[in-house]
Amino acid sequence: MSTALYRRYRPETFAELIGQSQVTAPLMAALRADKVNHAYLFSGPRGCGKTTSARILARCLNCAEGPTDTPCGKCPSCIELARNGSGSLDVVEIDAASHNGVDDARDLRERAMFAPARDRYKIFILDEAHMVTAQGFNALLKIVEEPPAHVKFIFATTEPEKVIATIRSRTHHYPFRLVPPAQLLDYLEELCATEKVDIAPGVLSLVVRSGGGSVRDSLSLLDQLIAGSEDNKVTYERAVSLLGYTPDSVLDEAVEGLAVGDSALVFQSVDKIIQSGQDPRQFVEDLLERLRDLILVDSVGLEAKSVLRGISDTMLARLQEQAAKFGRAELAHAAASVSDSLSSMTGATSPKLHLELMCAKILVPAANATEVGSLARIERLERRIGIGGEVTSSIPIVAAPITENASAPVAPATTPIAIVETGITASQVRSSWQRILDQVAKKSKRAYMVAYNIDVVAVEGDVLTLRFASNYDLESFKGEAGAPDVLRNA
User: Fold this and answer.
1) Which of 31, 160, 427, 431 could be cross-linked to 69 through a Cys-Cys bond (beta carbons 3.0 to 4.6 Å apart)?
2) Number of CB atoms found within 10 A of residue 263's CB
3) Residue 479's domain spans which residues?
4) Rounded to an integer, what distance in angstroms lies between the CA atom of residue 171 and that of residue 46?
5) Could you tell me the strand order of the sheet in which 413-418 lies?
6) Residue 405 included in any domain
7) Least confident of 37-51, 311-325, 438-452, 473-487
8) What is the CA radius of gyration of the chain?
9) For the segment 23-79, what is each residue's pLDDT rounded down to a tens digit?
10) 386-401 burial string, b = 16+ CB within 10 Å, else e?
11) How far apart are CA 40 and CA 100, in angstroms?
12) In a domain, 264, yes or no
């Protein structure tokens, strides 16, 4: 029977511990200078190396060549405290979750009075220290404050705020952090090479994402994938299925549909998610992750590979192709809508309904009266303008939302524009209007977008009167920098 990866690869020295230099560097300096404190408090998320660091510190203190910052690994103490060691009589590990009362504290206090059986120090490691009761901590307070010269205490906890202040103030507190994704990914790649495991591209990125920065959690997930693979080959499809993520094919389908406004394709993807039994919330999370990747690719291009660690060249090319079908405002609008929906789905009784409404909201940016929604609408229409400014006849015109009282009819807005007096009539302007718009499109596509819905009312002298479909369009025309001048010069 094989041993779990996180046990086989447990660090034995501070140099082997990854992602915790803010802890290892000062501890090693204290060991070299022989300024080791009598009590330490290690805090941080689960699986980031607190208990492992406590064992390494115990090895460093009781090494035959120590105290040293690098244990020799050959003396009896180092061998007993190694990853496959039997344990040392002078290093006592206590599970504070089940030994948290006053009686347990008294027993520990009595044991601390006895000299070490063989080594330099008698070291007590209290794991899950936050589970100790206030009465238990108070019973320990005196010996933690003034321990015998041969005693060291190391408290490890995920919730340091639950350790009473009088204990915390008598320790050196070292906060551990989650390991950065890039560093954890490199570590897993080296481990797979050592284990001679063939990992498909993109799998380790999913493992790192699922592990959430916890080395132990990531190693446990990787161990599970390797154990369930055939011939030590972990496929991407199996990893996606086991870890519960959305398959890339479904995500690609949904993103393509959102980019081109294909409602049938989008809702077909939603139906696949529902029929497969996948949690709609997970699909929304994966979609938000994909949109974030597209925003990065759209912003920095090929340099996104340095940020999206572990991504294959094929996947990067696919992301570039998808990002090109969106505009920046559309991507921002879609990401904001997905993020809002993810928040609203928490505790929702019908997440499927929220998912479908989210897709509808993204597909109709004109229904969003915010600035981002308006820009998304403009970008979508701009992509339907040819390179030379030709406009396809299938451009849909969606009226902007009217925020005034619905019972009061709103007359179309009109505005006069001064032009050079040439003796032309309104009918002549109307017959040439499409050519005028083509000229506007060549000079400014944004000006074209706000001028597209304009109707010619009259020409009186050097004044051209125009009618807008709504006050919203009129304000957009006035607010677009240079739009009146571009139209006047066209």
Assistant:
1) 31
2) 13
3) 413-489
4) 20
5) 413-418, 463-468, 455-460
6) no
7) 473-487
8) 33
9) 999 999 999 999 999 999 999 999 999 999 999 999 999 999 989 999 999 999 999
10) eeeeebeeeeeeeebe
11) 18
12) yes
